[in-house]
């Protein structure tokens, strides 16, 4: 074989080898005997160094780039993308070889294997059939394992398609390239969050970052008003009422500022509620019920798409709206600690209620408990999560939940009506699986 033909064959085999380039499905190409001799010399040099260095990998990548610059049989040159893919494939092979020499095994994690499992094509089912399948699932017991097993089975058979759809890795038609899971956290700045949500999600609209309806100045102004009002009434009572009655009333009026300060120190929420009521800014009745329904529907939709089993579902006696609670993950082996995947899913679900409110009203008012629960989840993480990363995860969770609700908005609106009508969990699941967006 001539030198030109040999180099052409080598380049073609490199392209074939990298067409299915994945960490779990890497295929090494077989170069010619001359190329194997050169590679063997390089490998011996790496064994002598007994170290994985970026310099050694870079040398091999540059070597491939030089070979791929040669012309093919048609006289053309390979594209820059193909060159980079070939270089990356070779670097990966070198990394795996050196890692094995050092005793480090390279493999595919069980979660990645299960998430890329081949699924049956989705079936076209009627709403009645979907609701019948949903009712066959035991939601009442709140058992996470039985719910997950039943829903996973329906997804595998093609009868359901949206359970875990936000975290399930799907394969392309060729079966070689896996798409990235949606729940891959990345740093999100406040300006980025605002721009990618059309200016809807901000610290002010989320009521985080020090923003609230009742501020310190409101408490200060009300305190001054109470003291001045009580003092004025005490003076007037002494001036215009009989001496004994005026003196007794003035003493009682003097106790009002003391009582006010005492309540403000021990239960400031009561005073904050009074201020909101005075402004007329506190929602009541049907308006409050509508907001809660939208909040809970956002939680349920994102929790289902992220694959979180339902722990509890009951109607709140005060509001008359069904509230949903999810299992937070963890297992006996991890002593209740949460993996990175668990934290990512919980960050999305925790922020989904507030995001749903913002999409409807422009501002959230019921997300404080969700943020506290998310903080507790951060503390249970297998890996330490610092303050900066917590903020990134919170903002990323808000952005991801916004995209999930927006992309499934018809399903979300159906869930809002279902929560208003206090429908069962099975009916809510049927709404998600049976709707089209």
């Amino acid at each position: 074989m001539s030198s030109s033909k040999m180099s052409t064959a080598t380049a073609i085999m490199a392209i074939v080898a990298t067409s299915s380039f994945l960490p779990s499905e890497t295929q090494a190409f077989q170069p010619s005997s001359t190329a194997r001799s050169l590679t063997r010399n390089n490998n011996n040099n790496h064994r002598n160094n007994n170290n994985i260095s970026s310099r050694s990998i870079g040398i091999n990548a540059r070597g491939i780039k030089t070979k791929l610059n040669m012309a093919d049989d048609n006289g053309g040159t390979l594209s820059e993308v193909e060159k980079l893919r070939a270089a990356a494939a070779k670097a990966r092979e070198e990394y795996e070889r050196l890692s094995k020499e050092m005793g480090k095994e390279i493999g595919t994690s069980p979660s990645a294997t299960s998430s890329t499992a081949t699924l049956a094509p989705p079936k076209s089912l009627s709403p009645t059939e979907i609701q019948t399948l949903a009712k066959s699932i035991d939601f009442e017991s709140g058992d996470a394992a039985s719910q997950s097993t039943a829903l996973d089975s329906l997804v595998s058979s093609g009868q359901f398609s949206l359970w875990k759809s936000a975290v399930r890795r799907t394969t392309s038609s060729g079966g070689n390239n896996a798409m990235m899971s949606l729940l891959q956290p990345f740093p999100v700045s406040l300006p980025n969050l605002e721009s990618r949500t059309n200016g809807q999600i901000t610290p002010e609209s989320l009521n985080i970052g020090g923003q609230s309806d009742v501020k310190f100045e409101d408490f200060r102004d009300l305190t001054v008003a109470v003291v001045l009002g009580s003092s004025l009434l005490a003076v007037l009572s002494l001036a215009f009422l009989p001496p004994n009655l005026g003196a007794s009333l003035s003493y009682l009026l003097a106790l009002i500022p003391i009582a006010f300060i005492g309540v403000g120190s021990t239960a400031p929420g009561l005073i904050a509620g009074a201020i909101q009521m005075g402004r007329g800014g506190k929602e009541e009745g049907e308006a409050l019920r509508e907001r809660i329904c939208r909040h809970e529907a956002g939680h349920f939709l994102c929790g289902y798409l992220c694959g979180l089993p339902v722990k509890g579902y009951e109607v709140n006696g005060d509001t008359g709206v069904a509230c949903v609670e999810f299992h937070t993950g963890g297992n006996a082996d991890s002593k209740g600690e949460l993996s990175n995947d668990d934290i990512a899913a919980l960050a999305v679900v925790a922020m989904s209620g507030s995001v749903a409110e913002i999409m409807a009203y422009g501002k959230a008012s019921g997300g404080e408990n969700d943020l506290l629960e998310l903080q507790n989840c951060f503390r249970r993480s297998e890996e330490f999560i610092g303050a900066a990363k917590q903020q990134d995860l919170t903002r990323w969770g808000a952005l991801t939940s916004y995209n999930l609700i927006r992309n499934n908005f018809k399903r979300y609106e159906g869930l809002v009506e279902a929560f208003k009508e206090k429908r069962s969990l099975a009916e809510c699941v049927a709404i998600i699986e049976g709707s089209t967006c």
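The first strand starts at residue 310 and ends at 315. The longest helix spans residues 216-240.
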